[in-house]
Amino acid sequence: MQHVMTKDDYRKYVDKVSPDSKTLRNTLRAFFVGGLICVIGQFFMNSFRQMGFDQDVSSSLTSIVMIFLGVSLTAMNIYDDLGRFAGAGSIVPITGFANSVASPAIEYKSEGYVLGIGARMFLIAGPVLVYGISMSIIVGIIHYLIKH
Amino acid sequence: MMRQTILQYINAFVIGGLICAAGQVLIDRTKLTAARILVLFVSLGVVLTGLGIYQGIAEVGGAGATIPLTGFGYSLAKGAFKDVDKYGLLGAFTGGIRATAAGVAAAVFFSYLAAVAFKPKAKS
Fold first, then answer.
1. Which chain A residue is nearest to residue B81, measuring alpha carbons?
2. Are the Cβ atoms of A92 and B71 closer than 8 angstroms?
3. Using an 8 Å Cβ cutoff, are B111 and A71 in contact?
4. Which of A45, A60, A75, B21 could pair with B102 in a Cys bridge, judged by C-beta atoms 3.0 to 4.6 Å apart?
C-alpha cells in the first residue's frame, strides 16, 4: 500500500528538511555579498595608500567612504533590498552599521528633528557604541595594569 | 606586485565573507536580532584584539578584517592600547573613540543629511 502523507506529515517533513538548505543558501549569500563589500573596501584602502596616506589615515578615509555608500544606498531604498537577499552579508560590514543609523533616522523623521531623527538614529548604533566603547575601556585598563 | 595585489583582494573576500557567513549562521540558528549580532561582533572584535588574536587576522585579511563590525571593535581596542601607551590610564578612555571618530562622525552626519533630504518610503 502506498503511504499517503497527510498535510500535517508534510508540514513536519518540510520543517525537517528546509531549515538546513535554507541556512546553507543564506550563508552562501552572506559570504559572497559580505566578501564583495570587503573587496570594495580593500580597493579604497589600496587607492588611499597609493595616494600616499599612511595606514591609519587610509583606514579612516575608507570607513568614511564606505559609510557614505551605506547611507546613500539606504536613502535610495537599495540597501534594504540588498539586506533581504544577503542577510548578515549586508548587516555585518560597516555599510550595515551605516544602514542601521540612516534607516531609523529617515523612518522616524515624522516624529521630529530632535526626538525623531536625532534620537532614533542610535536605535541600533547606540547599543553598538555602548558595548564597544565600554569594552575598549576595560581592555585598555587591563593593558595598563599589565604594563605597569 | 600584481600577484600580491590579487592575493590581497582574495584574502579580503574570503576573510570578510567568512565573518559575514558566521553572522548569518548565528542569525539562522539562534534567532538573534540584527542589533544583537552587531553588538556581539563589535564586542568580539574588542576581546579578540585584547587577547592579541585579531591583529593576525587583520594582517592577513586587510579590509576583509577591518570592514566587518569586528573590525570596528579591533579599531576601538587598538586605539585604547595606543593611547594607554602614550598617555597612561587616561588613554583607556580616549583611545577607542579617537581611533573610531571618523567612522562614527561620518555615520551620524551623513545619516542626518539623508534624513533631512529624503522622505521615508511608503509602508508596503
1. A140
2. no
3. yes
4. A60
Q: What is the ipTM of this complex?
A: 0.94
Please answer whether residues B16 and A39 qualify as being in contact, where contact means their C-beta atoms are separated by less than 8 angstroms. Answer: yes
10 Å CB burial of residue A115 (0-12, 13-18, 19+) is exposed
Residue B23 corresponds to which cell in the numbers above? 553572522
Q: Does A57 touch chain B (CB under 8 A)?
A: no
Grid coordinates of B50: 585584547
- Radius of gyration in angstroms for the set of CA atoms belonging to chain B, rounded to a whole number: 17
Say whether A27 and B28 touch across the interface (CB within 8 A): yes
Query: pLDDT per residue over A13-46, tens digit each?
Result: 666 666 677 889 999 999 999 999 999 999 999 9
Report H helices in chain B. Answer: 2-30, 34-50, 54-61, 63-66, 69-87, 90-117
